[in-house]
ARF like GTPase 13B (Panthera leo), 417 residues
Amino acid sequence: MFSLMANCCSWFKRWREPVRKVTLVMVGLDNAGKTATAKGIQGEYPEDVAPTVGFSKIDLRQGKFEVTIFDLGGGKRIRGIWKNYYAESYGVIFVVDSSDEERMEETKETMSEVLRHPRISGKPILVLANKQDKEGALGEADVIECLSLEKLVNEHKCLCQIEPCSAVLGYGKKIDKSIKKGLYWLLHIIARDFDALNERIQRDTTEQRALEEQEKRERAERVRKLREEREQREREQAELNGTSSLAELDSEPIIVNPFQPIASVILENERKLEKDKKRHSMEKDSDGCPPKHKTENEQIETQSQISDNSQKNNELGIVENYKEALTQQLENEDDTDQRSSESDNSKKKTKKLRIKRSHRVEPVNTDDSAPKSPTPPPPPPPVGWGTPKVTRLPKLEPLGETRHNGNAKGSVLKYTY
Ligand code: GDP
């Protein structure tokens, strides 16, 4: 009766216990059988599993425990990540391939490394001596000896249980009883010392998160600095390139294509001649009757005409002087143009032959001071002559000689009346 009451009290106590969330890490060398074990616990068929590359997580409910097991990859290069899970872990499941004697030393070193870690030392550890179904697999005692397990666990104050098992023998409810037993033992130890363990885990987890945050910030800072340095380098490089390209531009001689299209030159000449002819005939037609819209030159011409007509024959003598003055002026203009075009030079090459110039004619200067021109006298003016009109026809230069030298004239002068 007393025992029945005691059992009832114990059951009631357990029933009142809150659900506890427990995290475990499952580690061991690659190919030890971790994934097969995890799957078996979860109730999945454990054979034909691929070795864990990264990590996998399984969740299960065991009595009052909600258990999360991190199945961490055991490859040499991936073992470094194990420590990231130590802080939140309440206990360790270490899987050993008992059939692989050659790797026992490596297994021992790995286990030692795990137990010595400050976030693992003092926590319970379940060692699963797996692959017992395989011929020649080491028994429990041999495994303990090969791993110097007693020494290790004593050194690091870890409560330890070893279970010889075979992960592929069954799964779910039919899972190897040793695995089930080992898991019960681990959870029992955790439950027994849950408060102390929980406090430690909370503390370690907070520290770990702070550390991770700090590492994250440091990483971000490193990335930012690297980016800044790279951008600075790129800016400097761009500036260098910009300067050098400017220097190149400055030093680079301007190359002008010496080949001007002859067709365009001829066309332009013909157009000009045509225009001149028209204007000439119009002048003849509208002698004394100027058109409504006149150009500036034409207006000047007209004014000159009126002026000339009023002076009649008296001015015939002036014509010679005028022609000379005009010739001189045009020559001067030509020189000036030549000089200015030379000063502009380099940039504005004479791509087009100059055909038309501003025909602004200054009032006739009858002063004797007008220099005499060596230009041969033009033909006598026709009856009812107007103000001399100057038409400059482009000189058709040979291709490749579009550049003028200092004295050469780029055009010939032709006077029309
Ligand atoms: P992990 O790398 O530690 O996760 O190892 P796996 O669970 O992937 O198992 C590696 C190989 O061992 C797989 O081919 C499994 O089928 C096999 N294996 C796992 N446990 C046992 C076992 O108990 N007995 C036998 N014979 N093979 C097993």
Remarks:
- Residues 288-319, 340-374, 380-417 have pLDDT under 50 and may be disordered.
- The pocket of guanosine-5'-diphosphate is lined by residues 28, 30-36, 47, 49, 51-52, 74, 95, 130-131, 133-134, 166-168 (CB under 6 Å).
